[in-house]
Each structure stands twice: as C-alpha cells, then as structure tokens.
C-alpha cells in the first residue's frame, strides 16, 4: 500500500480590473450647460478650440469626468448604455436591494418580491430603449441631433475608445468622414458650436433689447 501526501495550491481568481468610464450618456440638457461652462474655463475662456487636438481632447475628457462623473469600474461587461436614464438606474438599484434582502432571508415572499423587481427592470429598460430610439430617429437629421453626436459615438464604441479614436462620423451634410484629419476637424467644429450656443443666445437677447429700446423712443 502506497501512501501519498499531496499539497495543493489553491489560487484565488483575481478579479479583472474594469476601466472606469465617463458617463457621457448624461451629456443632455441638464448637464450640457455646466459642461459648456467648465470646458470654456478649462480652455482659458476661448470659444475657438486650439488646433492641438490631442491636448484639446484630453481637456474635454477631463472636463467630462468632473462634470458627468465616471462609472464604478465594477461592471461585468461593457454594455451599451447611451439610452440609459434615471428611471432605469433607480429600478436597478431597487433590484439590487431586493436581491440582498432575498439572500439574507430566503422566504417565498422575498423571492416573489425580487422576481417582480427583475421584471420591472426589464420593462424600464425596454421602455427607455424605445424612447431613446424614437428620439434619435427624430433628431438625427436636425441640428439638434448634433448634440447627441459625441455621446452616441462614445457609448456605441465597444472598445471604449475616446474622442480622437472614433473613426467614422458624419459632417453637417450627412457625408461620412473616415480620415483621421477630417474626423478630428469635425469634433473640433462640434465643440466650438457647443460653446458658441451661449454667445449666440446672448447676442439675440441683446438685439431684442436694442429693438425694444428703439421702438420706445
């Protein structure tokens, strides 16, 4: 009879590091104005962006991280979230709390509650996606649709590439741009337009005031 003593080394699986990503999906009306102001401050009050795109892109990314926030880096996979909204986020948070409750006390009541929360999340996700696609189709052919350009390009890039790495976008006339130079030039135009919107509104308001003053004299 042979007796063999063996020592096995059990290696704990190391959790893969997930890159924290900027929440570009929040670049909508509620955050757009703050983003515009912070970006202008970061660029020293300039309205026309510098020609050095690498530097400008880094300033844009840093401003986005500060204003819009970043993900926790704990996600299991890189999911497309350009359609994300607060209702979906709240539903998912409630589902997580329901899962913890069921894990701690596995009663039938808690199980049914958790299953209902799961169904609710699915409904909210489906509703949010449908609403986002409807709005997208309506806005893509308008100037208003340009406001979604950066956010959509960023979220639909499976590799999580940043601004200067997006290779295919459209110009104002709907033509596809594929060269790196033309893509970077279009991004530059887009952010200049974004920053100029506030100035244009101020000029229109000033002109209306001048006209009212002229008529009253």
TrEMBL record:
Residues 104-131 form a coiled coil. Keywords: Coiled coil. Residues 197-217 are annotated as: Disordered. It comes from the Eukaryota. PANTHER family: ENDO_EXONUCLEASE_PHOSPHATASE DOMAIN-CONTAINING PROTEIN, REVERSE TRANSCRIPTASE DOMAIN-CONTAINING PROTEIN. This is Uncharacterized protein. It comes from Hemibagrus guttatus.
């Amino acid at each position: 009879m042979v007796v063999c003593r063996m020592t096995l080394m059990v290696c704990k699986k190391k959790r893969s590091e997930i890159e924290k990503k900027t929440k570009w999906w929040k670049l909508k009306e509620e955050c757009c104005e703050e983003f515009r102001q912070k970006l202008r401050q970061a660029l020293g009050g300039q309205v026309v962006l510098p020609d050095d795109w690498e530097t400008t892109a880094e300033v844009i990314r840093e401003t986005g991280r500060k204003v819009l926030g970043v993900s926790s880096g704990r996600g299991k996979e890189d999911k497309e979230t350009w359609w994300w909204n607060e209702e979906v986020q709240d539903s998912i948070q409630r589902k997580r709390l329901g899962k913890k409750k069921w894990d701690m006390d596995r009663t039938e009541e808690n199980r049914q509650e958790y299953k209902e929360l799961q169904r609710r999340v699915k409904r909210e996700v489906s509703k949010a996606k449908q609403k986002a696609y409807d709005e997208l189709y309506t806005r893509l052919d308008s100037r208003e649709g340009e406001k979604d350009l950066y956010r959509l390009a960023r979220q639909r890039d499976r590799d999580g590439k940043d601004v200067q790495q997006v290779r295919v976008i459209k110009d104002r006339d709907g033509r596809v741009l594929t060269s790196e130079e033309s893509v970077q030039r279009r991004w530059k135009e887009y952010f200049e337009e974004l920053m100029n919107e506030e100035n244009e509104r101020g000029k229109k308001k000033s002109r209306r005031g001048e006209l009212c003053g002229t008529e009253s004299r």
